[in-house]
Each structure stands twice: as structure tokens, then as C-alpha cells.
Amino acid sequence: MSPVRAFLKVVLLVLAALALPVALGAPTVVHAVTGLNAPRTDAVSPTPAPVAYDPTRPTVAVVVGDAGAVASDVLAPYEILAGTGAFNVYTVAPASHPVPLTGGLDLVPDLTFAGLENLLGGPADLVVVPAMPDVGRPTTKPVTAWLTTQADGGSVILSVCNGAAVVASAGLLDGHRATAHWLRLDEWAGTYPGVDWVAGTRYVDDGAVISTAGVLSGIDGTLHVVQRLVGADAAVRAARAIGWPYEASSGPPRMARARLAPSDAVVAFRTGFGWDRPRIGVQLADGVGEVEVASVFDTYAQSLAADTVAVGDGRVTSRHGLTFVPRTASVAGLDRLVVPGTTEHRTVPGIDAVHPHERPGFAYDAVLQDLARTTDVATARWTAKVLEYPVDGLSLEGPSWPWALTLRALALGMLGVLLALGALGLVGRRTRATRGAR
């Protein structure tokens, strides 16, 4: 066999080894990613609870688009700011229908853009912009147009995670320093070159625009806003209330910029070959904390290791007045049930319930530990990396790696090679037979 033919045979076998895993894994990956903010399929659209308004307090608008947003980006800043008692805090959106936060959590906005205008008669004092799944698409036009109006009226803008790209797409970051999630920072630098993108910091305060790095970096950025607008003592109390380490300072915490590493391949095995992903119900009840809710939905959803769905009866009101609409009241078809919050235990017939927040501490710790136990440590570490949450001091116990899924991928690759070798052998025999018949 000539060197060229030998080389082509090797290339063919490599492609064959990849073909089956890619062909069978790609649809699963697409389903997992696109399902993060999948809208509900019914027409349920309850009216949110009436909002209170104190004209002596500054007003915060946490904006969500029609396609939804990342749960932690919305709920963590909301609880921190509402918990201080120093602000009027509302979730706002172009329309009043439920919007999907990551993992199957539907939020009914407190106000529409028009409703906020009628309430205030002008712009909000602070606008919080989370990451949205349709950033840069025409569907975000109502949000970006409204952001421009708010900024022109003097609002301070706080972007969380890839919410910075939403703000940048409105042209409001041109000439400003900003940061965003490490995984897409280079992409935003190419898409929005007028922005001075900064890596290696949890937030950037550039005056009228404050931006944070990925997901839980939004907590540091929000506490900085509390310190800036209310005072250092208020920021420390707000951090203590959610179990987050925070010291009043004059600058943002530095951090090493995360980059993809070989161990991050776990997400490919977990997502592409986890065809039997568990379906986790998240039981919601009135009074549940917003950060507690986000910790469950975002940890499992961002891991891409499970599908989550909100479970509850009718409308649920959170600790600080947000309105959630569970997608089901039944536990039928669920593999597990997780109950966020420190509310009393309730027996749910037909399924064992897990209560991750029985002990005090930062809400995400216990959920990440549960993720490590029920999947593997590598998946939990990847999820923490996506959340931009340092877990070096957090004990994570469980299988080290998804070996069964890895073997599933390798078996598919070997099957592809065997099929290719069989096809090559068949072609070779036919070629030799043809030559012999001449």
C-alpha cells in the first residue's frame, strides 16, 4: 500500500471513529443547550402581586427579555438589593407573560416597561441586566431600546455575566471598560470592538456602567453597588445574609482568568452521551429565598447533567415578593425531587425529597455537593467553573469521572471503526474480483 493510500486509510478510520459519537451525541447536546430557556407550552399567565412603591427610596429595575434570562443573574442581585430594604426593586420586561429562567423556572415580571414608566414617571435609578439567550438577535430590540432610554435618563447600568453583551449591543458600552463571562469574553471582543474588555476581575466599575464577570461574580458586583449607593455596612450585612464572603473595599477582587482545560471535556461526555439524564423536580413554596431557588435551578441546569422542572400548586411568591409559576403539580415521571429553602419538611408521596439547604451557608455549596454525589466530581467542578464560583475549599465527594458515559463514547467510536474496516474490506474484495475477471 502506498504511503498516500495508507494515510487516507488512517484519516478515514479516524473520521469513522468520530462519526457515530458525533451523530448520536449532537442532538443530545442541542437539546440540552436549547432547553435551558425553553418556554412553557401552556397559556398560563397569572397577574403578579401588586407592587409597593416608596418614593423616598431609589428604584431598581431587574430586566428580563421575552426569551428569558439566566436564573442566578436575575435572582441573586434581586435578593441582595431587596434584602437591604433600601430600594424599590422590581423585575421588568417588555410584556407581562411568564418568562423562562434557566432550568424550567417561569417568572412573572412585576411590571412591564410601560408599567414602570407609569409608576415612576421616568427612568429607574439602577438597571440590572442579566445574560439573555437571544443576545444580539432582533428579539432583544425591545430590551436594548428600553435600556438606551434608561441610560439617557441617567440610570446606572449593572450588567451581570453576558448581560454585558446585551448592554454592548445597545451601544452603551462603547468607550467603556467592561467584563463578562470568561467563556465568551473573546467572542464579545470580536463582536463589540468598541468596548475595552477586561479579564481577570469579578467586576468593573466604569462610572455609569458596572459590569460583572460570569454568573456568581454578579454577587460581588451587586454588593459593590450596595456599598456605593448605600454604604459599606449595608453591603457587609447583605453578604452575610446569603452566606457570601465579602469585605468592604475600594476595588474588585482579582481572579485568574479561567480557560478551557482537558478536564472540561467532561461536559462533552456528560452532555453528548447522557441520553438517560435524570428529570429533577424542584418543589417551590411561598417564602422561598431567591438565591436558594437559583442555586438549585442553575447548578443542575448549567451542569447539563439533568433536566429540571418547577413543581408546585398554582402561583408561588418568593421571600421578597417575586411571582413564580410552576409547570406541574405532579411528581409523576420525576427521578428526584429537590426542595430549595429552609422551609419545613413536607412528605411528598411517591418520591424521596432532598433538602439541600437544611444547614446554614451559601446556598450553592450544598447543591454542588449533591451534584458531585449524584453525577461525579469532574462535572461538579466544571459547573462551578461555569458559575465562576471557587470551590477549592469545598468538599466534593463522589465518582471522579463519568466513566460509564466515557465508555459509551469509546464503544461507539470502536463500532464506527469496525464498520469502516468492514466497508474497506468489501470494497477491496470487489476491486480484486473485478480485476480478476478482466
At a glance:
This protein has 438 residues and is of the alpha/beta class. It contains 13 helices and 17 strands. Strands 5-2-1-6-7-11-10 form a 7-stranded mixed beta sheet, sandwiched between helices. Strands 3-4-15-14 form a 4-stranded antiparallel beta sheet, with no helix packed on it.
Question: Please, could you describe this protein's structure?
Answer:
With 438 residues, this protein is α/β, with parallel strands linked by helices. The protein has two domains: 15-44 and 261-438, 3-Layer(aba) Sandwich (Rossmann fold); 59-242, Rossmann fold (3-Layer(aba) Sandwich). It has 13 helices and 17 strands. It has helices at 3-34, 71-83, 113-120, 141-152, 163-169, 185-191, 217-229, 232-242, 266-272, 290-303, 363-374, 377-387, 403-436; strands at 59-63, 88-93, 99-101, 105-108, 111-112, 126-129, 156-159, 177-178, 196-197, 203-205, 209-212, 279-283, 307-311, 316-317, 323-324, 336-338, 353-354. It starts with a helix and ends with a helix. The relative contact order is 0.12.
